[in-house]
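[Solved] Which block belongs to which protein?

Original post:
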Amino acid sequence: MASIFDSDYWIAPLGRDLIFPDPRLAASEGLLAFGGDLSANRLLTAYRKGIFPWYNATDPILWWSPDPRLVLYPKDFRLHKSFERILRNGDFKVKFDHQFAEVIRYCGTVPREGQKGTWLMADMQQAYIMLHEMGFAHSVEVYLDDRLVGGLYGVSMGKAFFGESMFSLEKNGSKVAFKALSDVLGSKGYDFIDCQIVSEHLVKLGATVITRDRFIDELKESLTKPSELGSWQDWRWRYIDGR
């Protein structure tokens, strides 16, 4: 993650209002603005514009809209044969919105290869827990023998899902969560899952690299559609061969 002090272009300071600069004007790395707060209104305003917070403990709140952008269109999930066999075995069980706080805690604490520390500090976690309580943020939980072993969380608005983070305590835990989310959102008419930053792992699963301009245009269209606001605890998923 870049530091605000490493940038060689002007970054907008945010005040008390909820106005963000035009994300189309940000440099390709995506750093657009700094400051403000993590209030629900500011976060929701940011997501509607294709902007998300991401910062280190030593930085102010940083707001990003990178170019290019990575998205998964649900129909494009790439199911490799080895993973299909794992799903067919049926060992993993999936639930939605049953342990949101636990999922976000794991996302902030489970070590990742090549990454030191976490951007998911306590204030960030609390902000998304607040969005969850409001019905905007959701989690996917993956269980093995009734033990939570993987999951992800993100924000849903219109027919767009903004993926934030995932974790695995067992091999394939987060991948099962991603597959389940893709299937269920696809069945409910969602347009895409925003994966934010280009990741080779997610590209292998079918995610597509698109320009920021295209992402913002598609987001605007998705936000005109009805939201699935509220708890998703009654949502169900199980793998069906060939789906």
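(Second protein starts here: sequence line, then its structure tokens.)
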Amino acid sequence: MHSIVIFASGKGSNANAIIQYFKRSGQAKVALIVSNKADAAVLDIARNEHIPFLIVDKQSIKETLLIDQLTECKPSLIVLAGFLWKIPDSLLHTFPGKIINIHPALLPLHGGKGMYGHHVHNAVLTGKEKESGITVHYVNEKYDDGNIILQARCTVQPNDTSDTLAGRIHALEHYYYPRTIEFLLTQ
């Protein structure tokens, strides 16, 4: 069975979608959740699902102890699901081609540092984009710059707000992210 490690900073809706998907399919299990926030709701999901978790700070995410703990999980993939920090080079070099991210827009548009959640949706609306969507991509040394694995699109409606657009984006994320992970695990 494949092992997945999830990095998340917030509510954990994508993490939960991934956990539930693989509980049903049985092809993988989430072995660990890593968060940079001790009060992140994703940790409640980890507790409820009996999944071990780690809380990291700016120093510990760069340390070999974290790399050792991740290596112990033997992850087939490390999945960023709303993790707001840049991944340090030490992790990228230890797990080459095994770290993926989901971004709530069609990259290369509206990516980069500080572009997450409603910041992205507001930029899409301000830019008068006709469509938005999600991008699943490999993680490299730059924010939102790695090779694209999958993009899924939705129409931006004339009366959209950041919240209504976010709702459609979340639906795309929850559907496509687990399936993209499953596809990558079977390659």
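Accepted answer:
You had them paired correctly. Confirming on the second one: The chain has one domain: 2-106+134-151+170-185.
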